[in-house]
Design goal:
heterotrimer; A alpha+beta (757); B alpha+beta (342); C alpha+beta (172); B: 342 residues; alpha+beta; Uridine Diphospho-n-acetylenolpyruvylglucosamine Reductase, domain 2; Enolase-like, domain 1; five-stranded antiparallel sheet; three-stranded parallel sheet; 13 helices; disordered C terminus; C: 172 residues; Ubiquitin-like (UB roll); DNA polymerase, domain 1; 2 domains; globular; disordered N terminus; binds flavin-adenine dinucleotide; binds iron/sulfur cluster; binds FE2/S2 (inorganic) cluster
């Protein structure tokens, strides 16, 4: 297949591609390694005031007093905002909802009322002339409360669980039961019944949330904001504060990590805008690391699983019942149990997902929301069942391979999971793994090998892209998406170069500005599929247009060639078989008397093609652990992960995405845990010192294999996205390896050493 | 962080004078790695910081009579990598390198390390009660999140630990803390330096209010050939000890002549029990000999909901440390303080 | 401290001289201003990052008198006379990247880039210290720099790649 075919809208063969599929260094690399890349709190404008947030010390109750007047008397303090003096914002809940929030909830409104909703929520903003003055004054704020009893314990409140009543984008309700899971379970030869739990986890991107809200002379706001969605923030600010879009611009060129925490507008944005508009002054508000534990998080979950297999080791019954926490005012919904009806062939399946309302902040999507949680439990249980059936756990998975999406009763758009199993197990050296636990040793350490399957949905959203080709032959492509470390700048530049025929160095991609054309928030691993497909379309249109203009040129430089006879490369249209016949894009523009060519395309998801298929990426994860038998210390010494994620556009960044996600999976397995003091209703290890994420010394050999998939159904690029799939299945592979090493099945994450003593 | 005055002391006497003048509101600033952290948390609220970094206390010197003097202002990194410390007190070098991060060790000083405060979550969070931070307010850790808390020598008022790694080795080496104050100089044996929480958890050591630590003196040690620091923690590096053990053996062939053992992560001070060490005298260096010592060290230990495992873990760590020490310092493969079996 | 005294005491700023990226600067700073905030908020040297402000992440790592330190725990006032090198000063202005910077780009040793300046300064400081020989040494001695994006394997690769060139620079 040649590039030509792509003009006609078909997927492109990677081999023929000039850029796609080639490892490409990040175009924003030099800016990041020199410190030139500016993040939200780094736009320094003259006369900037600083807001420091005061957080509540109790979970429920009413604020009875705040010594705001005393604090305002401190020299250099410009304002203390509290619920008592905060300017009114929009009245209706609807006006506080954003693209991502649940449809029927009441989003948290900072400084709205004396009533508290959770511990560590913001209760005041101290604005000072300098950061230090504000911080000093904030340290003197005294808040008195009339405390009320709170509930923060999921386990203790499980009886209050209820089915979701709300809905939100990205959530797929549990499918209806199929067959009769209960009676199949009763009859089966091999059975597993177990409960798994996972604590709340906090995203903790390296950069804390920050908002630099610049107040213009005309009252216009330019907001440098840490977010995964500039337009979502813009719309939110406009709707909450009754402002017009033309008066609010949200800018976010670089984002120091998101992982889902920045899908929704964060509360420091609200506070910064409130302070800036109240004071008519530019204000910066940053969260402290401690405050990074005071909003979105992966919800705590308890999962009850019953699995059964018949005498041939075929899965016959799946029951998966998940309980997850949410706040009192919003239902946070993620797809937890559906995977259990999807991963393997099984006739009898019953899946239930329920929520428990607690006095906590609303949870929010965290890397592979739902799948990371649900698949950890399910894939652990599968491992337990395989052992019951005395079958090698990889063999068990192969045997029960799902050839179609049984939840939807549809074929898969593509699924190279079998090849993932083959290639990763080969690379790992799985063959000959003893079935029995405690069989492998290295010196005095126990060694264990575990495997897991991973899965994530391949989504696509509507997105718009604009392309401007200027007379100097340079192409600027733009859309209001973001690059949260995912490599968006780079991959979009590659796609644009590929499909426009403009050389990489002459292409630039702009993002992170609400004034650009529409893009959905960056999340769900859908950015390449959504924005990337639109980039492809707009560039294809650009070429068609250039070709048409070239045909009208005097002297007919292409000698009357048809579209099918020409190639677009290096800023030129060439007759493929007679390359001396060519014309540069600059010449085309000049001949047409244009100083630029501007195109704008909106790409819709391929709904019709997708509707008849289940669209997912898959992975096979193999992990090796080494356990110090006496002390319980665990090292994940090796991970091999094979990914079937459609077409890989930039193997370099894709590999980094998967490596990082595997580190996340190890972190989920071994380290992350918000330690709640239920007496105080407060997360207590709210720091990077005590909320552990892996350090460099925790990470050893990790290998990533990409198994190619050709998929014309998911989207025009055939790419499925890389952000989430890498984490899914890692925690279960590690847990399964720990069991294989020690014979101990740890069903509550994280697997800390005390659980192995 | 509250506002405070800053002065730079020019000499030892000057520093002490400034401290006296501050009338209880002064605090010495050394590396700042603990103090500045606590200032930002609003836990430390001094009126004045007296910067002691320019005092002439930054040398490692041999002592007449054979020991080694570590100046209070020598950084943890310079101490750990000092050839004499590595040769004569490998346990100390390894303990230091097992703590914090390379950056922090470049800043942290020996004096400051002795006086670092507990990492109990509640102590650090001014929104919660804590007897140590605010005497009489209560101790939520006892019934709350106490993974980082102690199991030995705790009290009904406080169950916090002293988080230092370095101090555990100092305890095993029977270091002497030299201090200078308004009343002159004195020496405090390390065993008497830190205190147990009892009814006064806000008091953590026997330093008088205006005294300045000038040095840590290490006596001659016969343990260099059989020294180990074993640290068990929740991640491979950059985490405080759940349990740590500094162990030194003096061997005569296969027979133990004398033993030094100190535990970290389990108490309000580095935990030593000379009577337990004495159990090994004259015994062969085997696991059978070590087990009763481990039992003796943890006799009377009391665990809490989230840290009871430290009792069993601690015993095993003691046996591991002694086993490694018996093999010899040189046999221990050592990745910058990470102790692993060779 | 109570509010009355807080109000009464004016900010007692002091003058310090710091050489930052080779440039001598006379600065008036309050005692409570950290080196990190001084760089970011007063000198617009925002390449040095604030990840935690408590010594727990390494994002703020700079070279202070050639040693890597967490600038969030350094009070600027205490460092009168010191030399500071930040990420902006690693390579001479306008010249090509420092070998460590180039290796980070070549090895894709970052994603979001927020820990990156700290990682790079830390790596250069580590090589100067001279205790890192093996990959395991690097992993241990770089553990004071968290990377939430999980770029560790590539960070180790980049450091190994730039080790010799960085050493060569130090010795001149
Ligand atoms: C994230 C993090 C992780 C850490 N991990 C570890 C770890 O794993 N293991 C470990 O052992 N430590 C660890 N530490 C603690 C670190 O070792 C201490 O903070 C450090 O040793 C304190 O030394 P400093 O010079 O910085 O003290 P400072 O912060 O300057 O001072 C601490 C206290 O000592 C007083 N003081 C200092 N010097 C003197 C003196 N000469 N005379 C009288 N008083 C004095 C000060 O007034 C202050 O009260 C960690 C710290 C951090 C921030
Ligand atoms: S254990 Fe000690 S430090 Fe911790 S809360 Fe109780 S009194 Fe405070
Ligand atoms: S910001 Fe200084 S260590 Fe995190
Ligand atoms: S690159 Fe994002 S934290 Fe390291």
């Amino acid at each position: 297949m040649s590039l030509l075919k792509s003009i006609l809208g078909t997927a492109v063969n990677t081999d023929a591609a000039e850029h796609l599929g080639k490892p490409t260094r990040r175009v924003d690399g030099p800016a990041k390694v020199t410190g030139a890349a500016k993040y939200a709190a780094e736009f320094n404008v003259p006369n900037l005031a600083y807001g420091v947030i005061v957080s509540s010390g109790v979970a429920r109750g009413t604020i009875t007093s705040i010594n705001a007047a005393e604090i305002e008397a401190i020299p250099g303090v410009l304002k203390v905002l509290t619920h008592e003096n905060a300017p009114k914002t929009a009245w209706l809940d609807r006006s506080h909802r954003d693209q991502i929030s649940s449809k029927g909830g009441s989003p948290f409104r900072p400084l709205y009322q004396a009533e508290l909703q959770y511990s560590a929520q913001p209760v005041a903003l101290v604005v000072g002339e300098t950061f230090e003055i504000a911080r000093f004054a904030a340290s003197l704020v005294r808040v008195e409360y009339d405390e009320k009893p709170h509930e923060t314990d999921l386990h203790a409140n499980q009886a209050a669980a209820h089915p979701p009543t709300d809905n939100s984008g990205g959530y797929t309700p549990a499918p209806k039961p199929r067959g009769d899971a209960e009676s199949a379970f009763e009859k089966a030869a091999f059975r597993v019944e177990a409960e798994y739990s996972q604590p709340s986890e906090f995203h903790n991107p390296m950069e804390s949330y920050a908002s630099t809200c610049v107040y213009g002379e005309d009252g216009k706001l330019t907001i440098y904001q840490k977010t995964q969605g500039v337009q979502n923030c813009q719309a939110y600010v406009c709707s909450v504060f009754g402002l017009s879009k033309k008066d609010v611009q949200v800018i976010s060129p670089y984002v120091g990590g998101g992982f889902g925490s920045g899908l929704r507008p964060t509360y420091e944005l609200y506070l910064a805008v409130m302070a800036a508009t109240a004071l008519k002054h530019s204000v910066r508000v940053s969260m402290t690391r401690q405050q990074m534990f005071s909003f979105s998080h992966r919800p705590e979950a308890v999962q009850q699983i019953k699995l059964a297999a018949n005498g041939d080791g075929l899965l016959d019954s799946v029951t998966h019942h998940a309980f997850e926490e949410t706040s009192r005012k919003e239902e946070f919904l993620e797809t937890v149990v559906n995977w259990s009806g999807l991963l393997y062939t099984c006739p009898n399946v019953s899946l239930v997902h329920q929520l428990v309302n607690l006095d906590v902040a609303s949870p929010e999507s965290m890397r592979a929301p739902g799948a990371a949680t649900g698949i950890f439990a399910f894939e652990s249980a599968i491992d337990e069942l395989a052992y019951q059936a005395k079958t090698d756990p990889l063999e068990f998975r192969r045997k029960n391979y799902a050839e179609k999406d049984q939840n939807l009763d549809k074929p898969f758009s593509s699924k190279e999971l079998r090849a993932c199993y083959d290639q990763a197990s080969e690379r790992f050296g799985w063959q000959g793994r003893p079935l029995e636990p405690r069989s492998l040793r290295k010196g005095s350490d126990l060694i264990g090998w575990g495997v897991s399957t991973g899965c994530w949905e391949a989504m696509q959203q509507k997105a718009e892209v604009k392309a401007v080709l200027t007379a100097d032959g340079k192409l600027t492509v733009s859309s209001a998406t973001s690059d949260i470390g995912t490599g968006t700048y780079t991959v979009m530049t590659m796609i644009a170069a590929e499909f426009s025929g403009v050389a990489m160095e002459n292409v630039s991609f702009e993002l992170g500005d609400s004034s650009l054309v529409y893009s959905p928030v960056e999340g769900g691993s859908w950015t390449v599929a959504s924005v990337g497909s639109a980039v492809k379309s707009v560039c294809e249109e650009l070429r068609a247009k250039l070709f048409k203009l070239a045909g009208k040129m005097d002297g007919r430089p292409l000698g009357g060639a048809e579209l099918a006879d020409v190639t677009f490369v290096n800023g030129e249209v060439r007759v493929t078989k007679d390359p001396v016949k060519s014309v540069t894009y600059a010449e085309v523009l000049e001949a047409a008397g244009l100083d630029k060519l501007e195109l704008d395309t909106t790409e819709q998801p391929q709904l019709i093609k997708r509707a008849t298929h289940g669209c997912y990426s898959h992975s096979a994860v193999f992990a090796e652990v080494s356990v110090d038998e006496d002390l319980g210390t665990i090292h994940v010494t090796r991970v091999v992960s094979a990914i079937a994620g459609g077409r890989i556009l930039n193997p370099m960044a894709a590999r980094s995405q998967i490596l990082g996600a595997i580190v996340w999976g190890i972190s989920m397995a071994m380290a992350e845990e918000g330690l709640m003091d239920h007496g105080l209703g407060r997360c207590m290890n709210h720091s990077y010192a005590e909320y552990h994420v892996p350090v460099n010394a925790d990470i050893h050999d990790i290998e990533v294999i990409f198994v190619p998939e050709h998929d014309e159904i998911v989207n025009a690029l055939g790419a499925k996205g890389m952000g989430e799939i890498g984490i899914v299945g890692v925690a279960s592979a590690v847990a399964n390896a720990v069991w294989h090493a020690t014979g101990k099945r740890v069903r509550s994450l994280p697997i800390t050493l005390d659980k192995l003593l | 962080m509250i506002n405070f005055a800053y002065t730079r002391a020019t000499g030892i006497a000057d520093a002490i004078k400034e401290k006296v003048e501050a009338n209880g509101g002064g605090q010495f600033l050394a590396g700042g790695t603990n103090l500045v952290d606590l200032l930002k948390e609003n836990v430390a609220r001094p009126a004045r910081l007296i910067d002691i970094n320019r005092l002439p206390l930054a040398a490692v010197e041999p002592m007449s009579g054979g020991g080694l003097r570590l100046g209070a202002l020598v950084t943890n990194a310079d101490t750990a990598y000092h050839p004499e410390v590595q040769r004569r007190y490998p346990m100390l070098s390894r303990a230091i390198l097992a703590g914090a991060s390379a950056q922090l060790r470049n800043m942290a000083t020996n004096g400051g390390n002795l006086l670092q405060r507990t990492r109990c979550y509640y102590f650090y969070d001014v929104a919660t009660p804590c007897n140590k931070r605010q005497p009489g307010s209560g101790c939520p850790a006892i019934r709350g999140q106490n993974r980082v808390c102690g199991v030995l020598g705790t009290s009904a008022q406080c169950i916090a630990t002293h988080p230092s790694d370095m101090c555990v080795a100092l305890a095993a080496l029977e270091a002497v803390v030299r201090v200078s104050g308004p009343q002159g100089e004195r020496s405090i044996p390390i065993a008497e330096f830190h205190t147990l929480p009892s009814n006064t958890p806000h008091i953590e050591n026997t330093l008088s209010p205006d005294e300045l630590i000038t040095s840590i003196d290490l006596p001659e040690s016969p343990y260099a050939a059989h020294s180990v620091y074993t640290k068990v923690r929740d991640r491979a590096s950059y985490a405080f000890a759940l349990v740590s053990v500094a162990a030194g053996l003096e061997l005569d062939g296969d027979t133990i002549k004398s033993t030094r053992l100190a535990l970290g992560g389990v108490a309000h001070k580095p935990w030593r029990l000379p009577a337990a060490e004495a159990l090994l005298t004259g015994k062969p260096a085997t696991k059978e000999s070590f087990l009763p010592v481990a039992e003796a060290l943890f006799a009377g230990a009391q665990g809490y909901e989230h840290n009871a495992f430290k009792i069993e873990l601690g015993k095993r760590a003691v046996v591991r440390a002694l086993t490694l020490a018996a093999k010899g310092t040189a046999a221990i493969h050592d990745v910058n303080g990470q102790t692993a079996d060779a | 401290m109570n509010l009355a005294t807080a109000n009464a005491s004016p900010p007692a700023t002091q003058f310090v001289t710091l050489t930052i990226n080779g440039q001598q600067r006379h600065l008036e700073v309050a005692p409570w201003t950290t080196l990190l905030d001084l760089l970011r908020e007063y000198l617009d040297l925002t390449g040095t990052k604030k990840g935690c402000d408590h010594g727990q992440c390494g994002a703020c790592t700079v070279l202070l008198d050639s040693k890597r330190v967490n600038s969030c725990l350094v009070l600027a006032v205490a460092k009168d006379g010191s030399q500071v090198t930040t990420i902006e000063g690693l390579a001479a202005p306008g010249s090509e990247l420092h070998p460590m910077q180039q290796a980070f780009v070549d090895c894709d040793a970052f994603q979001c880039g927020y820990c990156t300046p700290g990682q790079i300064c830390s790596a250069v400081g580590m090589i100067r210290e001279g205790h890192a020989e093996t990959a395991d040494d690097i992993r241990e001695l770089m553990s004071g720099n968290l990377c939430r994006c999980g770029a560790y394997p590539n960070i180790v690769a980049a450091i190994e790649k730039a080790m010799d060139a960085t050493r060569a620079r130090l010795s001149v």
